[in-house]
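Morning!

As promised:
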Amino acid sequence: MADQALLKEFEAVVGADNVMSAESDTHAYSYDAAVLDSVAPAVVVRPTETEQLGQITALCNKHGLPLTVRGAGTNLSGGTIPSKGGVVVLTGALNKVIELNTDDLYAIVQPGVVTAKFAADVAAKGLFYPPDPGSQAVSTLGGNVAENAGGLRGLKYGVTKDYLMGISFFDVDGNLVKSGSRTVKCVTGYNLPGLMTASEGTLGVFNELTLKLIPPPQAAQSMMAVFDDVQAASKTVSAIIAAKILPATLEFMDNFTIRTVDNFRKAGLPTDAAALLLIEVDGHPAQVAEEAEKVEKICSEHGARSVDVARDADHRAKVWQARRDALPALANLKPTCVLEDATVPRSKIPAMMQALDRISKEFKLTIGTFGHAGDGNLHPTILTDKRNHDEWVRVEKAIDAIFDEALAMGGTLSGEHGIGMAKAKYMEQETSRATIEFSRRMKKSLDPKGILNPGKIISALLD
Amino acid sequence: MADIQKLVTMLNELDDQLVNCMRCGMCQAVCPVFTETGREADVARGKISLLDGLAHEILKDPKGVKDKLDRCLLCGTCQANCPSGVHVLDIFLKARAILTGYFGLSPAKRAIFRQLLTRPELFNKLTSFGSKFQGLFAKPVNDVLGTSCARFQAPVIADRHFPRLADKAFHKIAPAMDQPAGSSGKRVAFFPGCMVDKVYPKVGQAVLKVLAHHGVGVFMPHGQACCGIPALSSGDRDSFEKMVGTNAELFANADFDYIITPCATCSATLKDIWPTMVDDEGLKARIAPVSAKVLDISEFLVDVLGVTALEGASGKKVTYHDPCHLRNSLHVTAQPRTVIKATGNASFVELPNAATCCGCGGSFSLQHYDISKKIGDLKAKSVEDSGAETLATSCPACMMQISDRLSQRGHSVPVKHVVEVYADSLG
């Protein structure tokens, strides 16, 4: 329980209704979607105006209180697990779209706007906001920027960092810092929007985000290619890109995932197939028609047993339902579901698939793999029960092995989930000692008391 | 108050179910309470983490957890949309029973469940008595909706616009029935439920009219008890079992093809909750065949009697609200719409957000009227936006809640049960 005088200070800023310190409230903010131990904060504060965000930040700094900003708490790396005795600041009530500019193609939003709702508002104005993380129905834009969230459209349309044009945020003293602009071109000063993206709440508290919007594609064509050989499917991915076609989405599912999904929805998927590729090309109708034909041909030439081209909207929805079902179907199998996002250069997907197969056998674990093959971002999903201690030890070793393999192939620790607490220990392995030291010096000068989401990203060297 | 270690042990029995929640948070997108409050403890993920924390002694505030657990409509939307297939309703009902066992039942609930709902005859007498004197306390506010409000400050009623208790309960209007199968070759048992019996007897009359029209024989014994859900959702498993037992006496040995109800909540309770939540093995075995025969009235009309939508129907615009217990628990959505379209004199318009909860949630609306009102207002606004001239639904509790909100907002869109709309069309 936080001390009463401190609670009064928070209440003076946001009102008593928006300060929670009872155990039955704080415990509900002790976790996120990562499989990590929970840590309850001392206080949870829910500002309703962005100015209050700055005041709360300054207050935390004054008292040296660890501060973790939380949107929907859907992230998969422990980025929103707070510090013991710390403060959780909720952005849920800061959910206004301040401006949606259809002439200059940008929007200014508060950090708590829900991603899917924003995308729908944008679509209603005839425009397009492409980043579509799997949790978009609840995830917030502030969280998307903080974690640099990706999604199914990353291959062609990029991820959240490609859409952040400008930002304003509060520094630890509660001063408002602004950078970037409403213009497409802007080279004024340091690229602070770039610095804040993927900073996971460790450098500042977001106030407003300026996001780029684009015209939507006029047409799209989806298809499902069925393979009897994983390697053939993996090589097809490279062949499509090598043919200078950039699909909007190019998704992969392995045999285990196919069977699990089919069992889940009885969708009539080819359960004997070694792998599926789910592909969608979009753009101008003429270009879509041409590219779809080429993709179909490439798939066949590279050993696809069949290519099912969507005939209409219903058929297209069915193709994508299979992909959307991948995670829920796997999650239904076992109590604990560890969703990783090790990412490799596209050309290394065949090798990565072989490595995952070897790792699952070596550690005697069930691993279903699906994911964004087009951008090399795979989701090996380990199915386990964290209460089984022996198996859990093997799971942790398998995760180490997955990252060893990915990094050895020139890949990365995280395609879209962020580093948080879960992957901090591997940071030096991907970067360098100097990178960590540089980041720490930067953090130290911006946040001398270390109050901003401590324990994340670069924390492994702190102890 | 029992021993906390015993509480921990009992909650640990839920561990296999609790552990299935992977904390993805997708329940936030669909939870009507979270939409209003934005608080994690109000959504399934938060509540499951609180129960998990209590079971593993990470937190030690059973009272706080119970209060949070009670802030739930039990609409089941989270469960219907849960990627991990977590049995949220099952967990919450069991956890409420465990926590109620720990704290004991409140005196008011004890009186209502143990002295009243478990004794149908006394319940009938008391409501009949109440209906005669309610004019002293309530005055009409909206003739179309048939709502009233309190004449003076009343703690439970607050500023509600509520339908008055029927002057004559359904069981007083309709005789006990035991007809053979009619021309349809079918014979059904009719379970009207408390709300239809005491507040909306016209819905019961509509059911009888429709069944007679289709040549269906009716078995309707008097002395039916409440389905038990009010007691169970308050954690009183003993009273729940008593009510199920009373109903088992009436129905378990009778011969009928289906047991039908016009109440979504009763349907879901009889069909899903009775088999999973009754503990007594003997009773469980006796009610299993009854549960297996449960159909919502629209489901019966469409799936069994073959009622179909009529082409080119036109008339007043009628829209439909999906009661949570029909949509989320029983997955019945198409049939009520078909029944409306089968009237031939209504033009059906889809209700924006038809699937979202109306915010009633039984005793939730009594304990958390402020949140209940806000959720209900969203529904009332959807009804206004739809341009409908009648709102139809399949649950008397939803009818009551939506009538309250429409009435408070000064709207006079009549709220009817689907079966009433259909019965009206039969002339």
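Residues 389-408 of chain A form the longest helix (20 residues).

Hope this helps with the figure draft.
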